[in-house]
Design brief:
Blueprint lengths: L1 H19 L3 E4 L4 H18 L1 H7 L1 H6 L4 H21 L2 E4 L2 H22 L6
Length: 125
């Protein structure tokens, strides 16, 4: 159940990023919500599996940059999720450049944090 909530929060955050960031285009034709759901699924799976390893490996650089390097790690994960979604299902994102992906990772991080704080049960607060 926790993964499904995480997936839905990520899908909403990705939808907001697509709406706000002009350098992110949805690939998938008329059913944009399907492309967003597929991309959010890959992003959620990558966040659970690969992200902790990358954060551990980038810990020295993150300490030097006061945690800002984690945004670069999130940007890399966006590229990986877009590559997987486009390669496997031909649905997902087209990212116009690193700057747009960086901005999208900031938007996704902020929206996800806000939604997770709203959806967290009282005992987790």
């Amino acid at each position: 159940m926790n993964f499904i909530i995480r997936w839905l929060v990520t899908a909403i955050a990705v939808g907001v990023a697509v709406w706000l960031v002009p350098g992110i285009v949805i690939i998938g034709g008329d059913s944009a919500w399907v492309a967003i759901a597929i991309f959010a699924l890959f992003l959620s799976l990558i966040d659970i599996s690969i992200k902790p390893i990358l954060q551990l490996l980038s810990l020295p650089v993150s300490v030097l940059t006061l945690g800002l390097f984690y945004l670069v790690v999130n940007t890399l994960l966006l590229y990986i999720a877009a590559w997987l979604a486009n390669g496997i299902f031909q649905a997902g994102f087209y990212i116009d450049g690193f700057g747009w992906a960086f901005l999208a990772s900031i938007v996704i991080s902020i929206v996800s944090a806000l939604l997770n704080s709203l959806l967290a049960p009282e005992r987790d607060r």
